[in-house]
Amino acid sequence: MEQIESIFGISISGVEGLDGDINYSNRKFRITGSDGVKYILKIFPDAQEWMLAEEESIILDKIGHELSFQVPQNIRLSDGSMFFDFEKDKAKLLSFIEGEFMAKVRHSPKLLISLGEKIAELDLSLRSIDSPVFASRHLFWDIQNAHLSLPKIPLIKESGQRKLVQYYLDRFTENVLPIQHNLRHSIIHGDLNDYNILVENDEIKGFLDFGDATYSPLVNDLAVALTYIMLNKTDPWEVVLPMIRGYQKHIKLTKEELELLPDLITSRLCISLCNSAEKKHLGQDNEYVLISEKPAWTLLELWSRTNPIKIKNCFHEAAGFPLVARTPKKHQVDVRAKVSGKSLGLSYADPIYMTSALFQYMFDEVGNSYLDCYNNIPHVGHSHPVVSKVISKQVRELNTNTRYLTDSFNTCSEKLLSQFPEQLSKIYYLNSGSEACDLAIRIARTVTNRKTVVVLENGYHGNTSTGIEISSYKFDGKGGRGIGPHILKLPLPNLFNGKFKTAKEFAYHAMDAIEQLPEKPCAFIAEPISGCGGQVPLAGGYLSYLFDYFSVNGILTISDEVQTGFGRLGKWFWGFQMHDIVPDMVVLGKPMGNGQPISALVTSKKISDDFTNGMEFFSSFGGNPVSCEVVKSVLEIIESEDLQGNARVVGDYFKSQLQELKDSFPCMADVRGEGLFLGIEFLDKARKPDKSIANHVKNKLKDEFILVGTDGPFDNVIKIKPPMCFTKQNVDLFASTLDRILRSTDAL
Ligand code: PMP
Predict the structure, then answer these.
(1) Mutate-to-test residue for ligand 1 from 441, 532, 562, 601, highest number of ligand atoms within 8 A of CB
(2) Cα dihedral sign for 39, 40, 45, 47?
């Protein structure tokens, strides 16, 4: 330090190391002179850093004078130079700016307006700078290079968080990367995080650390600042309006810049989160490196739950742009009524006009977000980035029919069949659960040369003619023509309020009924937990009692796993495993393609051989490479995100929370199901099915932005079957909302 005293002619009374500060790349000290004047000493350990520091100094020299706030000033030696040898390194002195870090103060609207304004002022002054050195840099922190963080995604340990970052970086690649070169470019500060902004008396005092300056879209300075100001806020979108209003006092945002801002902010969050993951992976993490990690996750997660239209409109409003207006719902309702038959229904008397969805959230046209507790088709979550990528990649490569050999068909089949007991070794692909059930019956009738199918009361197995024929839910329901020939309907083995009290009684009754038929049936079809029957698990032991009898009598067994398959039940990957039996055929659908239309029938070699009678099996779309790649990705995601484990843990928690509520509300007569396939049955005071309260609850939940459905023969059961990434926090929200609804319901 004596060296500095002699070079600069100051006497030093204090030195404080700032190493390990948020600006961790250089060695930094705060030096206080005996006259109370403070300086920053920066030491540059290698030539490159020194060269960049030289460039930074040139910028500071050029912009320092005309601004209404401060930036660090270069302190020169008597010969006018800035750098001096300090031990083995180069060093320089900068002026010290008094003030508090933006990160440490309350953000009043006035301060935020002032911040926006000063950022614009800073950017305007930087526009005149021409710095080939900074312009040629390719910094991963620079939002325009967010794609450089993509390879770091695997370093994020938690699978849900990985998925989130993948989703938002994909948005960068799709929405920003192709058009960012058209935006206004300039030398920008590049790192306006809240530790590089100083505040005094609710005013912006200055900006620090120009070491990340780079040539980038102008709007990125505003985007970085917004990112950090939005952290740790209950309502992060509140800061957008004052900051943009302030910014626009000097720089008017273009339409393109404004539209991209939300994606630029999420991109910067992702860059920071990928950097934290990398630093942890390399063991280089410390308090300062990870300072924004937790709030960044919180913000990104909140972002993913927020309706994109709401976010967009918040930016539009702030910038004075017209709000996004979707086609009015009334118009959609009218068009729908015009083009579609009335037998195609809509959920809710006032239907929801959905515009997008992400993971377990769905978004409507006016900016609302719904917690999806109902849709089991997006099994691994709505808009899962891996599924989206697989579809778009395969669609560009090959999408053809199964009369050609393809990798996709074979690898998908092997992967899927590896989830089954060994004897179930053959697969047929179709496009819907209905088609797969239809094929199951066709196979059973062909193989056994018999006709009669045994079904369960209130079962549903599809919309084809055969589907309706075997679905009591349809033939016994509204508009149904009653049971047809060649169908034997058995009572649903429901231990809550079914016809008998034990599985054995149900099974004996079934065998008796079959014995009375003029010919033995060809097949028995059932779901392991009856969905349309009201989420009723078949009585434990019922199927194992019957399966020996079926086997002896050559009656083929079909497990309809359209709803229960793919790990939804938590403890089991397939519903038949819950009943400790192996059926002859298994029907798969809904979750298999996460929304891509694909279904399958899985059976044994023997049955498959017996079905081969010369008539070809072919489905134009079934088993095409796009669908097969999607199925593979669904299986991989279930594994990599441990969604079956999640269904078990969150499902058990869900059930326990509902059971607790059941103790307080007698109308909740039964809570049942497994994993994330649950039902709540409502009864009235006379213990009769209470459709009206189930319906009331469903509609009230909708008013609170939670989606469920009702079902069962009396429509008095609330069905819960959410995307498998459902969380305990989602359960808590559901349970507290249900509690509130039931408390304020007069009928109780
Ligand atoms: N089986 C079951 C158990 C189902 O729940 C459904 C659909 N709800 C089907 C078959 C028919 O599937 P899809 O709608 O894909 O034709």
Answers:
(1) 562
(2) negative
Give, in degrees to the nearest 5, the angle at Cα 247 between 243 and 250: 160
Å from CA of 19 to ligand 1 middle: 62
Angle, vertex CA 428, rays to CA 422 and CA 429, nearest 5: 125
Report the nearest atom of ligand 1 relative to the CA of 527: 3
Phi and psi, residue 699, nearest 5°: -70, -35
What's the Cα-to-Cα distance from 544 to each of 425, 484, 503, 538, 602, rounded to whole Å?
Answer: 22, 27, 10, 11, 20
Give the residue from 596, 594, 651, 646 showing the smallest Cα distance to 626. Answer: 596
> Of 460, 566, 569, 586, which is best to mutate to test ligand 1, by the most ligand atoms within 8 angstroms of its C-beta?
460
The CA distance from 667 to 693, in Å, is: 8
Residue 719: which H helix or E strand, with range?
strand 717-720
Paired residues of 86 in beta bridges: 89
Per the CB < 8 A criterion, the answer to whether 565 and 591 are in contact is yes
Q: Could you give the count of Cα atoms lying within 13 Å of 534 in the half-sphere of its Cβ?
A: 26
Using one digit for the tens of pLDDT, what is the confidence trace for 14-54?
A: 888 886 544 445 588 999 999 999 999 998 888 888 888 88
Q: Which domains does the chain have, with CATH numbers?
A: 2-95 (3.30.200.20), 104-319 (3.90.1200.10), 331-379+643-743 (3.90.1150.10), 423-622 (3.40.640.10)
What mean pLDDT do residues 4-14 have? Answer: 85
Distance 669 CA to ligand 1 centre (A): 27
The neighbouring-strand residues paired with 682 are 668
Sign, CA torsion 700/702/703/704: positive
pTM of the model: 0.95
Exposure string over 328-350, b if 16+ CB within 10 A, otherwise e:
eeeeeeeeeeeeeeeeeeeeeee
216-242 residues labelled b (16+ CB within 10 A) or e (exposed): bbbbbbbbbbbbbbbbbeeebbebbbb
**Helical spans, DSSP H, in 320-422:** 329-339, 385-397, 407-417
Give how far Cα 746 sits from Cα of 683, 706, 735, Å.
15, 21, 19
Confidence band (pLDDT; 50, 70, 90) for 285?
Answer: confident
Minimum CA distance residue for ligand 1 atom 10: 461
* Site to substitute for ligand 1 among 456, 535, 563, most atoms within 8 A of C-beta: 563
**Mean pLDDT within 541-546:** 97
**pLDDT of amino acid 718:** 98
How many Å lie between the centroid of ligand 1 and the Cα of residue 85? Answer: 77
Q: Which of 159-173, 321-335, 350-364, 635-649 has the lowest mean pLDDT?
A: 321-335
- Residue 22 is predicted with a pLDDT of 41
Atom of ligand 1 nearest to the CA of 561: 3
> b/e map of 268-293 (b: 16 or more CB within 10 Å)?
bbbbbbbbbbbbbeeeebeeebebbb
Q: By percentage, how much of the chain surpasses pLDDT 70?
A: 98
Our mutation pick for probing the ligand 1 site, out of 441, 461, 594, counting the most ligand atoms within 8 A of Cβ, is 461
Token pair belonging to 45 = 């350990």
Rounded to the nearest angstrom, the distance between the alpha carbon of 441 and the centre of ligand 1 is 14
Place of tokens 């929405």: 175
Find the 458 Cα to ligand 1 centroid distance in Å. 13
* Nearest atom, ligand 1, residue 435 CA: 16
Kindly give the distance from the C-alpha atom of residue 619 to the centroid of ligand 1, in angstroms, as a whole number: 18
Residues with CB under 6 A from ligand 1: 432-434, 437, 460-463, 527, 531, 560, 562-563, 589-590
Quote the CA–CA distance of 271 and 277 in Å, as a whole number. Answer: 10
Q: Of 514, 543, 508, 511, whose CA–CA distance to 527 is shortest?
A: 543
